Amino acid sequence: MSIERVKRLLKQKENMRLEFKEASIALPGNLFETICAMLNREGGDIILGVNDLGKVTGVEENHLNTMIKNLVNLTNNAQKLDPPFILFPTTHIIDNKYIVHIQVPASSQLHKTADIVFDRSSDGDFKVKHPHQIVEIYNRKRAHYTEGVIFPKLLFKDFKADLFPRIRNLIRSNHPNHPWLSLSNKQMLEKAGLWKHDMHTGKDGYTLAAVLMLGKDEVIQSVLPHYKIDALLRVKDTERYDDRMYIQTNLIEAYEQLMDFVSKHLPDKFYMEGDQRISIRTKLFREVVANLIVHREYMSAHTCTFIIYADRVETQNANNPHGEGPLDLNKFAPFSKNPVISKFFAQLGRVEELGSGFINVNRLMNNYSDIGKPQFIEGDTFKIIIPVDAIPKNTNKSKLKSQVAETTNITLRKAIQDVVKDSVEDSASVLITNRLIKMVLLVYNKPGIKKIELNKALNLSDTTIKRDLQTVSILVEFKGSQRTGGYFISTILNEKLSKIKQ
Question: At CA 450, angle to CA 447 and CA 456, rounded to 5?
């Protein structure tokens, strides 16, 4: 969380969503009561190293790392927080003293610490002793957070196996010592809150969040037939579209496909962060895309859209509102719409803290476009409007030719993906699948290409090239003599592409 927001919090008094705790050398004894209570209520912020009046007392530097490590481990420990909800605090220096900021989102699950349920009010944390009060908390969450709906007959085999190595690599790149990395895949899903127990029905099972994050495409469609993200380019043809991408896959890959759409159609600008040049377009729109995916109400059939116009980008998704109207940066209080999905994306490094997207977009906007401010509008649908410098409606012939070729490749890639899925074993890795796709694209873009050229372009051995060509033989065929012939896309693929383009 930004130091500016922390400073604003320090000017406030403690309330239902804000708690100060003194902690010079160790975690406070009642810390997990507050974490539990905030998880069970509306979430909030805990700042360690500050007294009840908001005065910074500080955390001793030589105890800082141990405190943070203990907090991460304990929030992942079911004996301390049940079910676990892993938190990653941030540190700041205020008045030359260290403080620790813990952002606690509202959870879609009911939590206990030391086998006791805590709730939160304006007076602080309190024990929930009576069974009917516990049921009330549970029912409130069940009604509000549909990501936690359980599907008892959903099995582990319904998830895409090739996503798990990618998930682990993403987690490892952000948190090399992340506690989830030592767990099996099934254990990781349990710790992530994707498997839960329904106190109302007594059923156990994987949740809607698990289906969305990891489900095979056909499983997602059977659970949520209305699920899709509609990405459109409306620059020349504003009534219909210049380009369109339907996304109906898991949220991990949906994020990547939307970012590809952004890279294809939106300009980038020179931007330095410190002494390193980075893509301001990627940095800005990863926040927009993640917000669209993480905070959507997936039980609603309302169409989720990502539309690029000549002068702006607009997104719209179904929402379970926590307020109404435009968000104000100075009064903004983040509230998670899908806490489990949000937490999972945070571990992958695709979102930072709760509310970071809104803050980062406002911070980065002037570096990308100076024609207006971004708008985040809360309601039954959540809208984001990002002004962009005008995208030209007319282009020269060479540029148009390049765009047509690129669109063709996108269409071809989708067609190939469908066939490749049927051509390779389920255990085939994403790397192999992508390699096969690239091979067919090479053949498509250069009819008659030689095997030696494929070897060079793909940097593969002769044995691997032969095996891959056999795998995609339904898409690629050899024509001509052994000495002068080459590879061409097959009649079957040509027919398939013709149908898609119509």
Answer: 115
Q: Cβ(194)–Cβ(209) under 8 Å? A: yes
pTM metric for this prediction? 0.62
Instruction: Report d(CA 416, CA 430) in Å as an integer.
Output: 14
Residue 333: its pLDDT value, please? Answer: 65
Burial class (CB in 10 A: 0-12, 13-18, 19+), 210: buried
Cβ(347)–Cβ(178) below 8 Å: yes
Q: What is the model's pLDDT at position 413?
A: 62
Q: What count of other Cβ atoms lies within 10 Å of the Cβ of residue 151?
A: 17
Residue 80's H or E segment, with its range, is: none
Task: Report, in this order, helix, strand and coil percent for the chain, each rounded to 5.
Answer: 45, 20, 35
Other C-beta atoms within 10 Å of 383: how many?
16
Instruction: Locate 347 and state its tokens.
Output: 């571990």
Alpha-carbon distance 247 to 258, whole Å? 8
pLDDT for 412 equals 57
Residue 167: which residues within 8 A CB-CB, separation 6 or more? 188, 252, 348
Interatomic CA distance for residues 106 and 119, integer angstroms = 11
Question: Omega of the bond prior to 83 within 30 degrees of 0, cis?
Answer: yes
Number of H helices, E strands in the chain: 17, 21
Q: Which residues of the chain have pLDDT under 50?
A: 1, 395-408, 501-502
Q: What are phi and psi of 46, to 5 degrees?
A: -120, 130
Task: Tell me 364's DSSP state.
Answer: H
List the structure tokens of 398.
């060479």
* Residue 298, CA atoms < 13 Å, CB-side half-sphere: 30
What span, in angstroms and rounded, lies between the C-alpha atoms of 201 and 197?
9
Q: What is the DSSP string of 132-158?
A: HHHHHHHHHHHHH-GGG-EETT--GGG
Q: What is the pLDDT of residue 400?
A: 42
Write the pLDDT tens digit of every residue in 135-144: 888 777 776 7
CB 147 within 8 A of CB 338: yes
Encoding tokens for residue 247? 């996304």
Laid out side by side, the sheet with 204-207 consists of: 150-151, 204-207, 195-197
- With 0-12 / 13-18 / 19 or more C-beta atoms within 10 angstroms meaning exposed / middle / buried, residue 399 is exposed
pLDDT of residue 208: 94
Is residue 280 within 8 A of residue 368, CB to CB? The reply is yes
pLDDT of residue 397: 43
